[in-house]
Amino acid sequence: xxxxxxxxxxxxxxxxxxxxxxxxxxxxxxxxxxxxxxxxxxxxxxxxxxxxxxxxxxxxxxxxxxxxxxxxxxxxxxxxxxxxxxxxxxxxxxxxxxxxxxxxxxxxxxxxxxxxxxxxxxxxxxxxxxxxxxxxxxxxxxxxxxxxxxxxxxxxxxxxxxxxxxxxxxxxxxxxxxxxxxxxxxxxxxxxxxxxxxxxxxxxxxxxxxxxxxxxxxxxxxxxxxxxxx
Amino acid sequence: xxxxxxxxxxxxxxxxxxxxxxxxxxxxxxxxxxxxxxxxxxxxxxxxxxxxxxxxxxxxxxxxxxxxxxxxxxxxxxxxxxxxxxxxxxxxxxxxxxxxxxxxxxxxxxxxxxxxxxxxxxxxxxxxxxxxxxxxxxxxxxxxxxxxxxxxxxxxxxxxxxxxxxxxxxxxxxxxxxxxxxxxxxxxxxxxxxxxxxxxxxxxxxxxxxxxxxxxxxxxxxxxxxxxxxxxxxxxxxxxxxxxxxxxxxxxxxxxxxxxxxxxxxxxxxxxxxxxxxxxxxxxxxxxxxxxxxxxxxxxxxxxxxxxxxxxxxxxxxxxxxxxxxxxxxxxxxxx
Lengths: 230, 336
Fold this sequence. Notes:
Structural class of chain A: mainly alpha
CATH topology of the largest domain in chain B: Rossmann fold
Radius of gyration of chain B: 23 Å
Order of helices and strands of chain A: HHHHHHHHHH
Shape of chain B: elongated
Order of helices and strands of chain B: EEEHEEHEHHHEHEHEEHHEHEEHE
CATH superfamily of the largest domain in chain B: P-loop containing nucleotide triphosphate hydrolases
Largest sheet of chain B: 6 strands, mixed
Largest interface: A-B, 21 and 28 residues
Radius of gyration of chain A: 21 Å
Number of strands of chain B: 14
Strand content of chain A: under 5%
CATH architecture of the largest domain in chain B: 3-Layer(aba) Sandwich
CATH class of the largest domain in chain B: Alpha Beta
Distance between the termini of chain A: 50 Å
Oligomer: heterodimer
Strand order of the largest sheet of chain B: 6-7-8-3-9-10
C-alpha cells in the first residue's frame, strides 16, 4: 500500500498498520452514502410533493391523508437512528437478505432519512410564490404539469440545499451504523479507535469525515448558487 | 359576451358565511374593455377570478358565450381556461425560466404544437410586446414594465378571446403604467379581444376602459360607460374615485363657492363639442359674464371631454343655459 510507504503518515499515526483497510472503509462509507442518498431522494421527493399538495389550503388539500402522512413522517423522525436501525433489522433482512454490511445499512438509512428529506421538500415547495401557481392554474395546467414545470423548477435551489443537508445527516447515520455492523469509517473508528484504544484510527476517521462533509457542503452550495436566479 | 347571472359569493370562515360579493348580474360585451374599480377588500379580485373559475361562485351562473363556466370541471375547465389569458399585479412569472421559456409555457401546457411552431409563436409574441432582445434573460434581470410585458405575451400565447387584468399596473410607476395601458389598448384594438381589468385607480379606467362598474363592499353600486360614470358620478364611492383622478373638486357635489357671486354651473363637453367655441358664442349672444372656477380638458379613452365649473351672472343666464343645452353641452346647476 502506497500510504504505508509515506514516512510522515507512519510517524503521525504509528498504530495504523493497515492503510488499505482504512481506504476500503472510506469506499464503503461513500457507497452507503451514495446508495442511501439516491434512494432517499427517489422516495422523499414524491413524498414531499404529496405532503405539499395535500396540505391545508393547497391544490389538493386532503386533511386526513395529510394528517396520516404527517404522523408517519414524524414518528420515523422521532426515533433515534441507532434505535431505528435495530428495530428495522427484521425488515432489513426481508428486503435485502442481510442485516449487515453496506446492503444491510441502506434500508434503515433510507427509512431514517427519507421522511426528513420529505419535510425539507414540503417546506421548499411552500416557499414557491402562490401567485405563480395561480397563474399556471389560470393557464389551464394540470396538477402534474404544475408539479413538473412550476413547483420543482421554482424550488430546485431549496430542494438542492435540502439534499445537501440530508447527505450530511446521512454521513452521521452511516458512522452510527458502523457500531452495529454496517462497516465503513464508523465501524473502523468504533472497533479500533474505541474498543482497541488505537486513538489514531479515531483521529484519522474524524479528519476524513470532516473532509467529506466539507466537500458535500461546498458542492451543495455551488449547485444552489447556480440555481438561484431571484 | 361574458354574463354574470344572479352571481354571489361568500366565504366560509369558522362556520360562518362571510359575504364577499352580494348577488349581482352583469354583462360584458365582446371586444370591449371593461373596468371594475373598487378599494381593496371591495371584492374585485374575487369578481375577476369568477370568470376563469379560480374562484367558484356560491350561487348563480357565469356564461362565456354559451358555455356555463360553473358547470365545467377537469379537462373541460382546463380547455376553457386556455382561452382566457390573465395577467397579475406581481407578474407571477417563473423565476427559474427565461423570458422565452415563460412565454412558451402556456403553449407547452396546451400541447399540440411542435417545438418549431412554439419557437415561431414565441418570437411573434416577443415582437408584439417589444422584448425580442430580452428573450434569453431571466425575469429578475427585467424592470417591472418589462416583466408585465412578458406577462402579457404569456397571456396572449394561446390566442385567448378574453384577457383578465388583475391590478396589472398597480405595481408600476406612472410612466410605465401608461406604456402598459397603451399596449393593452393596442391589443384590444388589433386582436379584438375582450379585456376585463380591475383597478383602484380611476385614471386607469379613464385611459383604457369603455365601460366601468364601481364595486363597494361587495356591491356594484354604479355601472355604465366611462364617460357617464366619470362625468356624472352618482354614488359617494364613485365620486371619491373621480375626485382622485381630478384633483380639483370638479366632481364633488358640495361646492365651496359660497362667497362667489353669480350662479354656479358645471358644463360638460363631450366629443367634438369640446373643440367648438360654443361658450364664447353663447355668452356673447346672451350678454352674460362668467368666471371660471375649475376646469379640465382631457380624454376618456379616445373621447375628448371638457368639464368647466363656472360662476355666471347677468339677466340672460337662463337663456344662456338653454342655448348651451341646445348646443349639446350638459349643464348642471350646483347647489350652494
